[in-house]
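Tip: read the tokens left to right.
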């Protein structure tokens, strides 16, 4: 099972949101179509033009980011 799926189960959230946090932490995102690593702030793959990830809510991303960093807010 991919680690993103594991986190999604642990925190009972959508796996897309876990991927969003991973992007924020690593500064990178991998294209689901061709596998090319793109900067996290890019929404379109520079190699194949595929949309890299769905639009997520900023609040959700920050919430999860804090959880994964182990902070209580
Ligand atoms: Zn691509």
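Filled-in amino acids:
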């Amino acid at each position: 099972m991919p680690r993103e799926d594991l986190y999604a189960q642990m925190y009972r959230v959508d796996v897309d949101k876990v991927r969003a946090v991973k992007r924020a932490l690593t500064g990178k995102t991998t294209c689901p179509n061709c596998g090319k690593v793109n900067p996290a702030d890019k929404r379109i793959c520079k190699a194949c033009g595929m949309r890299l990830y769905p639009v997520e809510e900023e609040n959700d991303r920050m919430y999860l980011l804090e959880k994964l960093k182990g902070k209580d807010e």
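The pocket of zinc ion is lined by residues 31, 33-34, 36, 45, 47-48, 50 (CB under 6 Å). The chain has a mean pLDDT of 82.
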